[in-house]
Write a structure and sequence with these properties.
Blueprint (H helix, E strand, L loop, with lengths): L8 E9 L3 E10 H8 L12 E7 L12 E6 L12 H20 L2
Antiparallel strand pairs: 1-2, 2-3, 3-4
Length: about 110
């Protein structure tokens, strides 16, 4: 894998699993902002737009024998103000649909 370009973007991610739920939270981060933070600049000046999902065990749905289900909650923070002439609703819906489909596809066993 090649290193990202010096002025590129990296994705930071946090994952956690416990008996009640599993979650993934991620955020794009500009490499110059990351370097500034490492060099002592206050991290409060960095722009972090976290997104992610959480999967809860739906214990209330166990009415049928051996039935298992989960509840998926997805949250996005998107900054699209710099996209002039682009239908933001279409971009957001496409992004959400693709992300949810990727989650679903990764969970199908």
């Amino acid at each position: 894998m090649e290193p990202p370009p010096p002025n590129g973007v990296v994705i930071i991610q946090e994952c956690f699993i416990d008996p009640l739920a599993s979650y993934v939270v991620f955020s794009p981060l500009n490499i110059p902002d990351l370097k500034d933070s490492i060099n002592g600049k206050p991290s409060s000046t960095m722009s972090l737009l976290s997104s992610g999902f959480i999967i809860f065990n739906d214990s209330q749905s166990h009415s049928r024998k051996n039935a298992r289900s989960s509840l998926l909650t997805v949250a996005f923070q998107l900054s699209m103000s710099s996209l002039e002439g682009v239908n933001l609703d279409v971009v957001a819906k496409s992004f959400m649909t693709k992300t949810i489909n990727n989650i679903r596809d990764s969970l199908i066993v």
